[in-house]
Amino acid sequence: MPTLVGAEADERDALLQFLSAQRESLRRAVHGLTEEQAASRPSASALSLSGLIKHAALVERGWTDLMTGRAQEESRNWETEFSMVEGETLAHWLREYEAVALYTEKAVADLPDLEATVALPEAPWFPPGSRRSARWILLHLVEEAARHAGHADIVRESIDGATSYQLIAATAQE
User: Containing H/E element for 37?
Assistant: First the structure.
């Protein structure tokens, strides 16, 4: 079954496999759609499938940068993070999401362990002076991707009636 996560070799492998499974759920949600369909907002929410892919790629890149001590992007534009702007395409963000996945996997492989902590940036949603471990960050990335994969299932079904089970079957045949 393509959505059943395989047996893990160790904790890192387990975390990366579960994250990969959630990324695949997001990718499946756009299977067979046009740019217009993927950018549409067919529900009461302002979410689109292409916007969810874009957001997931940006979020994962940001958390992986933080986890590995790389420089953080100065500011993010929350108004455009969930939608396509002029010149952006779903194909671009799918490629970017794949590149981010490889970046995260390499970063995790290069970590000495999952215990080291990093300071979280100043933000209204983090208590001042907060620190988190690489393990926590990876668990959060699984949570983030899973949340948005659920959103994507609902948005996709609103577009053309395709359910996640139908999309699993369709992509398993390719």
Answer: helix 35-39
Is 128 among the domain residues?
yes
100: tokens are: 């981010």
Q: Are 56 and 23 in contact (CB under 8 A)?
A: yes
User: Any idea what DSSP says for residue 174?
Assistant: -
pTM: 0.93
Q: Which amino acid is at 99?
A: A
Range of the domain at 37: 11-172
The string over 87-106, giving b where at least 16 C-beta atoms fall within 10 Å of a residue's C-beta and e elsewhere, is ebebeebbebbeebbebbee
Residue-wise pLDDT tens digits, 110-168: 999 999 899 998 888 889 999 999 999 999 999 999 999 999 999 999 999 999 999 99
45 touches 39 (CB < 8 A): no
Could you tell me which residues are beta bridge partners of residue 132?
118
Q: What is the dihedral of CA 140, 143, 145, 148, to 10 degrees?
A: -130
How many independent structural domains does the chain possess? 1
CATH code of 103's domain: 1.20.120.450
Q: Is the pLDDT of residue 1 over 60?
A: no
From 67, 48, 62, select the one nearest 117 (Cα to Cα): 67
